[in-house]
Amino acid sequence: MTLSSICRSVVKFYFNCHHVESSSLYVHSAFTRRLQFACRLVSTFLICTFIGYGTSLSVHLSHQFMIPNSGVICIQETFGHTLSTALHVSLAIIPLSIILFIIQHLVVFQTRKLTLLFNALFFLTIFNKEKVQSKLAFQLVANYIIGMFVAVLASMLIFPLFATFDIENRVNYCLLHIDQMHQFVLQAFLCEDEIKAQVSLARARVVERRLHKTMSQMRTRLLDEIHLEPSRLLQRICRGRKKTITHLNIKEQADLVISLMFHVCSLQSMTNQCLFNKYHKNLVEKLQSNLTEFTACQSKVISALISPSSITREVFLHTLNNLQAALDSVNSIYKQVRIDHIEEMIETGAKIQSEDHLSHAFFFFQLGAIVRILRQTMVIDSELDTKKTMKQKKAFGDYFKFQLDWSKISSAIKSMIIIGVGSIFVMVPTLANTFANGQWILIGLCTTQGDTVGGALTSMKMRLIGILLGSMWSYAIYLAVGEVLYKICVMLVPWLFLFGYLKLVSHWDFLAPVAATTPILINLGQTYGDVLREGNYVLLRIEETIIGIGLGAILTILIFPTFAVDMLKKNIQDTLKTCCHAVESIHSVYDHLFQQQDSKQQSIDVDQHEETKFNIDPERNHFHRLITSQRTLVQSTALEPSFLWFNYGFSSSRYHALVLQQHDMFRILHSMHATLMYIKQYSLNDHKQIEDLRLNSTDARILLDLDVDLTDLSRQLNDCVNLWISYFTLTKTTYYRWSHIHILRKKSKLIKGDLSANEDCLIELHQTVLRLQTDYQQAMDRLTDYYIEKSAEKEESSTSVPYAHNDQADSILVTVSAMYYSTIQLVQVVMALGTTIHTIFELETTNVYRNF
């Protein structure tokens, strides 16, 4: 390796650029990211401690321990997250400090009450001084600002991880492993034995779980952090000349990965249900080499997208053209196999099996959809400029719109009451003397509040464990080095390094900061001197924390409780409405494509195309946020006392299954939308193809008309969703139903007939599946009779088959077949979803199931 290449590698490692390029499992991994973050956290602590205690500022500042404490709290994984945290905290504490400074000089409150008010609202600590300095508020703000400033600098200079680079690293990782997952799925599809196929599918599922874990943060947190970073500038610095290949911004890269993931998961689902019969084996035998070549070409395209080396636009375009040529070859062989199958069917008199035709058409449509998505990465500059001009900007007044939210008002009142109760332990002399001023009781009440009861209980559990761990280390520091400042800092370094590493580990993100800051507050911040020695102070903090958390748990449940189970059920209702709205949109698009009889309505312009396409994108983003929130709420609900309102408690496993089924449902809807957009693209260029397809469908020679089925399905899905929404509404907690008058005006609980109505809906859905499968098989039988009739007239199959010499017609037929297959799959997923919901409400409202 040359010196320049070594320097480039070091720079990329230091700035966390292109992790995916390395073959090492140790240089670029989660382990390395956690070590780098631990180094940033320790560096922040040391710099803040030096500023607070080792410089001339220590003479002018009080309570210097708040500087390292605020720095450790503000430092986050990415620079964007750190900057966002610092800005939000600054926007809160600077106006608050000004208000409290004014209140202090109005002489409205006594000194002790002002100290209580200031710390309860802002610093969450009590300083035992009879006199408070006139500029105490600004001195404390200065401590926080210094700590936050050091945290931002450390996040930017010490092993910096920008959210922009983090998303690009995740995108590159996802692209590489989506390609790997795709290869496993194709290996399973090419297997002649079902058992061998299941082995490859098991590998694909392992990759899928890792991909979902990597993509979850990218969709929810990181996309919000990049707004504070100069993303385009960072991309140019990192990518260099590679910027000429593609003009996708960060959000478009994330959308690219999400879309690819949907289609690959659809391939996986089809392969998992594939029938490895004679038709499939014959198809695989003829497509083996072509699909292998297709996989190799796709891997080259993915490698070009994630490769750190410079590559010209012409080379990348040539790679894409090779991929398109490989797809055309696969489609050509697939078409010839179907024509050969028709000739064999005419000779033997066998029937065309609808299961084989539909599932394989769906599979090859997904391959084409993946290629089209990859080709969209080549954006022409003029098209990019057009898209930029079409973007809608928010009006200035939209940023200042205020909407009254009673849930937020009740949450604010609840917080005020809880803090007021905690202040009793500080204001009442008897309680203050008993609990040594009761500061940690108040702090425990203030820092363990959450949006829901389950969220607050989760915070309480994590905080209690963190304080216990931190207090034990604090006591060990006192026994080892006493109160010598520099020795305390040396002992704190390994502790902060450990919990800086653990902060990025799942389920430790809240516990680790508490455990890290507890020794700082105890060893550097305790101000009792000879009143309480360190050992007693540690025990005092544990005792008061337990009291504060226990009191907080009781108050959280009693005062305006917002239970996570209510929010979870409301979230599920919103998700079901989103899916139902997507079905209605798909039906509307299909109706425009195939059912308009007026010539003016048949011509669909580009603007209408863009308007239709716009419907699915925000719904997809909204859906992902709902699903992510559901997963969090399921974990929070598990800690709530659900036995008080459910017969058999809360079934986490059932709700986790419900989340997965909702995800499958939207994946199928995404696939249906892709089929319609593909057909619509042809209708814009050559409407005659669509018209011929519609006429052939009317003559029952090719396919059935799905309009009636989609209308019926939309109605059934609406009925099911409305019924399930009523289930979720009526099984919410009593407090929620009492606080919402419109629910009390309806019936207050489920009755046996409600569950029977769900059974009727499931039966109707099952009949819909059988009818769709039967109707399509009958269409195939009529098509067989048509081919036999033409054969008797001595007409060659290449002439009688309408798509034999027309690739566009064949492509549309495959797409419509994929649409039909997706419709059947959608009904089956809705049936599974309804069955899970039925089981959940039997568990929650009936005595059908009994424990031992």
From TrEMBL:
Keyword Chaperone found: no
Record's subcellular location: Cell membrane
Keywords from the named record: Cell membrane, Membrane, Transmembrane, Transmembrane helix
Membrane topology (UniProt): Multi-pass membrane protein
Main location group: membrane
Entry's transmembrane regions: 37-59, 79-102, 141-163, 417-442, 462-481, 546-568
Domain Integral membrane bound transporter residue range list: 434-554
A Gene Ontology cellular-component term: plasma membrane
Protein name: Integral membrane bound transporter domain-containing protein
